[in-house]
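step: validate -> pass
step: tokenize input -> pass
step: predict -> running
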Amino acid sequence: MRQVPQCGIDLIKKFEGLSLKVYRDPIGLNTIGYGHLVLPNEKYTVITQKQADELLRKDLAATMRSIERLSSIRLSNMQLGALLSFVFNLGAGCYQRSTLRQVVNRGDFDDVPAQLMRYIYAGGKPLKGLINRR
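step: predict -> pass
step: emit ->
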């Protein structure tokens, strides 16, 4: 597995922000740290910076495995970083079913921005944070 590119980590940290306390994301899911979705078997309410970094590292390792499994071409670190942010935000299942994946796997990178902009909605409403992120 390729190493998670630092540009992807930086991008995710920038747009996710950090919360050491559990909060509800825009669609009502319990989240903590740098956008870690709190699973039913996890009992986080407050974490440390170190725990937030560890959760992000584990989440990004899983995200990288998904991207490598679903991608048929080699991506540059910058391309991989952008895709990492997208898949981390929306999940591997969304990427697997997306036209974005088809566009990326064809190498049609000029079409990627338009595909990314299809994913600016949460709860049926466009969110400024998602618009900025894409």
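step: describe -> The mean pLDDT is 94.
step: cleanup -> pass
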